[in-house]
Amino acid sequence: MDRYSQIDNKNQREIVLLKGFPCIWGKCSFCDYIEDNSTLEYEMNKLNFDVLKNITGKYKVLEVINSGSCFELPKATLEKIKEIIKEKKIEKLFLESHWCYKNRLKEMRDYFEIPIVFKIGVESFDYDFRNKFLNKNAKFKTPEDVKKYFDSPCMMVGIKGQTKEMIDKDMEIVLKYFNHATINIFINNTTKLERDDSLVAWFKEKYEFLNNNENIEVLYNNTDFGVGD
Ligand code: SF4
């Protein structure tokens, strides 16, 4: 599995996919990447340190992801990230967190002492689709609720059961409320959820203009950031 990459087009940055403790929720119906979670702290830190060695500071921007929230990274890994931020003069960090940690984001902002772009897996602003169908357990009501805490929503597109109307509404909200967002096109995985190819084809055509929007990153494959498998 690739765990280090450089994103050279939009929002240039280095990105690492680290190993963390089990995702606090772990029950989203579309997610099988929690299989990367571990409870073996020593092994996790060893692997994470090896991955972090790749960071050069080339873009002064770093994104750290794990299959869960940044709060699930081992303490020694967080310390190593902080050390590297200082050493490589990183000026901005992208981190990701589930909605349930919304009241703890400041801990990370204070700890790393550099601006953090906090991503959140929103998947959809449609309450029922998000919480009942995708079982996301992110029970906010409005985009303003999200924006109060987070900087950048990650959206999901192309699952059977999702509608064009839901996606139109989601894209409208993303463009209206947020300065940055990631759109993940669903790829079939080991879960029971299925990709809707006709919905994906419709989205690609209708929302092609997003490819030219510097602040919206559309991932047509879940390895488009160069990490994962
Ligand atoms: S919160 Fe994220 S990592 Fe956890 S189960 Fe849901 S999608 Fe997977």
Brief synopsis:
By secondary structure, this protein is an alpha/beta fold. 30% of the residues lie in helices and 19% in strands. The chain has seven helices and eight strands, in the order E-E-H-E-H-E-H-E-H-H-E-H-E-H-E.
Relative helix content: 25-40%
CATH topology: TIM Barrel
Major sheet: order of its strands? 1-2-3-4-5-6-7-8
Tell me the span between the first and last alpha carbons: 5 Å
- Biggest sheet features: 8 strands, mixed
Organism: Romboutsia maritimum
GO molecular function, one term: catalytic activity
Domain Elp3/MiaA/NifB-like radical SAM core: 13-221
Protein name: Radical SAM protein
Structural commentary:
The chain has 229 residues and is an alpha/beta fold. The protein has a single domain, classed as TIM Barrel. Helices cover 30% and strands 19% of the residues. The chain contains seven helices and eight strands. Strands 1-2-3-4-5-6-7-8 form an eight-stranded mixed β-sheet. Helix 2 (75-87) links the parallel strand 3 and strand 4 (92-96). Helix 1 packs parallel to helix 2 (75-87). It is globular and about 45 Å long. The termini are close together. 34% of the residues are buried. Residues 23, 25-28, 31, 34, 67-68, 98, 121 line the site of iron/sulfur cluster (SF4). InterPro entries: Elp3/MiaA/NifB-like_rSAM. It comes from Romboutsia maritimum. One of its GO terms (molecular function) is iron-sulfur cluster binding. Residues 13-221 form the Elp3/MiaA/NifB-like radical SAM core domain. This is Radical SAM protein.
